[in-house]
Amino acid sequence: MQNITLSDIASLFIRQLKWLLIGLVVGALLLSMYTVLLVDDRYTSSVSLYVKNTTEDTKDGVATTNNLYAARMLTNSYVLILQDPETLQKMAKRMTVSASVLDIYNALKINTAEDTAIINVSATTNDAILSQAICQALCDVAPEMLSSIVGAGAVRTLGTVPAAVKTGPNALKNGLLGGVAGLLLAAAVVFVIHLCDTTVKSKEELQRMTDLPILGEIPSLK
């Protein structure tokens, strides 16, 4: 077994720099082409919902601290209700674009903004119109579902549901990842080939392997 130092590894990679660069370029090109040609585009539409503790949660036009705190407590329950199959079924029936309950469930992402009474909703699909339609259907269904199940509080959409925007795939990012993967693979191949090569390439290597002095050397005829 060869005793390989970090200096040896660095020298090896410098000598084989050409193959490392080839691995980098090939990996980047392959993953970029795969992303562009075979990966479907993704579109995301998003909207925010404001939770109120009561239908009239203000006093003299100003929201009270107690009502705001209670609204924040309601948001976690509201998120679970909005993800319930019954809510998703109502959404599917309201939508003008055909989509199954499973499609809606996989597209939706619902979470709460920390320490607020805001629920953030987004839908990501391969169709811009479908993503927007899912968000719009949730905004239409949410008020009646939440009031009928919870029996307290109310929810209001902040603004209108915007058109979906393209959010993926990122060919540049994937190309960089492919380049790194290609570089690492090329480095691994170079290193393994070096380990399997048992030839002696220099007098220093021979002396290190045998721990014996060099008595003579045949000069190069080049």
Question: Number of DSSP helices?
Answer: 8
**Regions with pLDDT < 50 over 5+ consecutive residues?**
55-62
Calculate the mean pLDDT score and round it: 85
Q: Considering DSSP H and I runs of 4 or more, what fraction of the residues is helical? A: 55-70%
Number of strands: 7
Rg, rounded, reads 31 Å
Q: In this structure, how is the largest beta sheet organized?
A: 5 strands, antiparallel
**Strand-residue fraction?**
15-25%
What overall form do the CA principal axes indicate? elongated
| Series of secondary-structure elements, N-terminal to C-terminal | HHEEEHHHEEHEEHH
Distance between the termini: 32 Å
Structural class category: alpha+beta
Describe the overall structure:
The protein is α+β, with helices and mostly antiparallel strands and 222 residues long. It contains 8 helices and 7 strands. The protein has helices spanning 6-15, 17-38, 65-82, 85-94, 101-107, 128-150, 171-196, 203-210; strands at 42-52, 58-59, 62-63, 108-112, 118-125, 154-158, 165-168. The strands form 2 sheets. Strands 1, 4, 5, 6 and 7 form a 5-stranded antiparallel β-sheet that branches. The protein has a two-stranded antiparallel sheet with strand order 2-3. The protein starts with 5 loop residues before the first helix and ends in a 12-residue tail after the last helix. Helices cover 56% and strands 17% of the residues.
Write a concise keyword list for the protein shown above.
alpha+beta, five-stranded antiparallel β-sheet, 8 helices, elongated
